[in-house]
Amino acid sequence: MRAIVPSLWFDGNLEEAVAFYTDVFPDATVGDVFRQPDGTAVSADFELAGQRFAAINGGPQFAFTEAVSFVVECESQDEVDRYWSVLTADGGQESQCGWLKDRFGLSWQVVPVEFLRMLQDPDPSRVQRVVDVMMTQAKLDLGPLRAAYEG
């Protein structure tokens, strides 16, 4: 088996979306772009953080939902802040617990890896304190999460 590749369905704005995503993430690349005779992009391949994606200009029949999201694991609060800011810009929407929708309606979870480690602690009271704080946050903020973790 070669790979499992997420395929994203766009409503006429495939090229704008691919340009946006490949600008947001470092070391992103655009592969093949297939076009109609009039030059309109029909499909494209691109890669973000080593993950290959396919994209099609499928039309308005289907929209993204929170049932599928992409997790951006961040090494620092600065990285969380940067991705949160860029992905919610120009019409994106904040949700809660580190979730957001970008301007194309695609759902993302912007999560510090330190937070993920906190959730794996064997002490259930520590984990519960962290979860309780997380539930009050839109963008995850490591300061209050660390304070809850430490008790």
Explain this structure to me?
The chain has helices spanning 14-24, 77-88, 113-119, 124-134, 142-150; strands spanning 7-10, 29-35, 41-48, 51-57, 69-74, 93-94, 99-101, 107-112. By secondary structure, it is an alpha/beta fold. It folds into 2 domains: 1-61, 2,3-Dihydroxybiphenyl 1,2-Dioxygenase, domain 1 (Roll), CATH 3.10.180; 64-151, 2,3-Dihydroxybiphenyl 1,2-Dioxygenase, domain 1, CATH 3.10.180. It has a 4-stranded mixed sheet with strand order 1-4-3-2, covered by helices on one side. Strands 5-8-7-6 form a 4-stranded mixed sheet. The longest helix is centred in the middle third of the chain and has 12 residues, at 77-88. The N and C termini lie far apart (47 Å). The mean pLDDT is 97.
In short:
The protein has 5 helices and 8 strands. With 151 residues, the chain is of the alpha/beta class.
Strand numbers in spatial order across the main sheet? 1-4-3-2
CATH architecture descriptor of the largest domain: Roll
How would you describe the shape?
elongated
> Roughly how many Å is the radius of gyration?
18 Å
The number of helical runs is 5
CATH class term of the largest domain: Alpha Beta
Strand content: 25-35%
End-to-end span in angstroms?
47 Å
CATH topology of the largest domain: 2,3-Dihydroxybiphenyl 1,2-Dioxygenase, domain 1
What's the structural blueprint in terms of helices and strands?
Layout (H helix, E strand, L loop, with lengths): L6 E4 L3 H11 L4 E7 L5 E8 L2 E7 L11 E6 L2 H12 L4 E2 L4 E3 L5 E6 H7 L4 H11 L7 H9 L1
Parallel strand pairs: 1-4, 5-8
Antiparallel strand pairs: 2-3, 3-4, 6-7, 7-8
